[in-house]
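Suppose you are handed a protein chain with no further information: no name, no annotation, nothing but its sequence. What can you learn? This example shows the usual starting point.
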Amino acid sequence: MESSREIFDECCVEVASSLAHLGFQYRPRLHSAILTSRDLKFEVHFQSSPRNYLVPQESANKLKHVVSKLMPFGDLVMFGKVGFIAHAMVRSKELKVFRKSLPSSWANDDIVMGDQIGNLHSPARWFEFNLANPITRSKKVGKIRALIDSVALPYFEVFQNPADVIARLLDGSMPWTWEPNALEYVCCFGGADQAAQLLNEYIKRSADRRDEYHESLLRYRANGIPQVWDSGLPGRLAKAAIVLGLDGDPVK
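A reasonable first move is to predict its three-dimensional structure. Written in structure tokens, the prediction is:
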């Protein structure tokens, strides 16, 4: 009987192999398929679960009579769990250099954006596939491949033209889960004026954020930028604005 780790590893190889014709190279130790394109690096990363388990076949046979009552949890009862979650990540050497030029950047790596692929989908969804059932495993792998093809690869393609990324950030159609990094990206590849415009858009999308944003700006100017991030969006935006030099109160 295969272990849950072996099942996961085999499925990683199968999914990564389907990307090889596009130039992605699979790195087993990272569980990632990676494509380098000039300044950019695109990564599809595979994650499993520390709570994986497999049900011995003899135990599964004894549980067959209750499976129908437990659907859609039948696979968990009959076969166990081998979780598979796919993430998409974009990296940029140019952005890393830009970060190092900032007086107090919050990061010094090359990560532009990274998330569970379902969060790059509209509407955002959490996609986790259970590969424990050998009967449906191939079908699940096919769904993972289709998700990468339909969501991750088009998302990657937009980054080939930074102007398109910036335009979509400004009109709100570019999925992006961490606003400070988006502002940083626009500063790097567009400029301070466009970044200030995006900051303005983030604040205007919720009227009650404006006062909180300005309160945070005043507090950070007086007391310094906090080492940790404020859990609220206005605080995050205020910190990013100061670090990036966008704190000239652009919101009207």
